[in-house]
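I am writing to request your help with a piece of structural work I have in hand. I am sending you one protein, given as its amino acid sequence and as whole-number tokens for its backbone shapes. Kindly check, if you would, that the fold set down in the tokens agrees with what the sequence suggests. You will find the record immediately after this paragraph:
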Amino acid sequence: MPKGIPSDAAWALLRQPNPAVIAVTMPSGHPMSVATWYLVEDDATVLVNMDASRARLAWMQARPYVSLTALQEDEWYTHVSVRGPVVRWDHDEATALADIDRLSRHYGGDGFGNRSAKRVSAWFEITHWHGWDVG
């Protein structure tokens, strides 16, 4: 996996609301992956957001290093995988669910439906990346 900043073509794919899977490490040391929404921020970190009761949140907090693969919609051979450390946490209910609302809108929806949800946002830095058919 190359280190550092993804290519321009990889950034272009990552900035789209593509299907994605995030992987974290369970306490057993085994990987666990799940579909997720993500959003590349202007500072080149990647935002993900989880329900506060999810086991993967606790696992990420214990081992704050993740991998995410974004697949170009309708062409899953074209994809970008990125990985890196979580560099910031925020409890989304403190900001009136602003982060999950941004993710929901990025993926073509309205604001997030469950307004009483307790959500946690994490931003990770891209330290390594790999792409297929992205230059």
Remarks:
- The mean pLDDT is 91.
- The first helix runs from residue 8 to 14.
- The domain at 8-129 is CATH 2.30.110.10 (Pnp Oxidase; Chain A).
- The helical segments are 8-14, 55-62, 98-106.
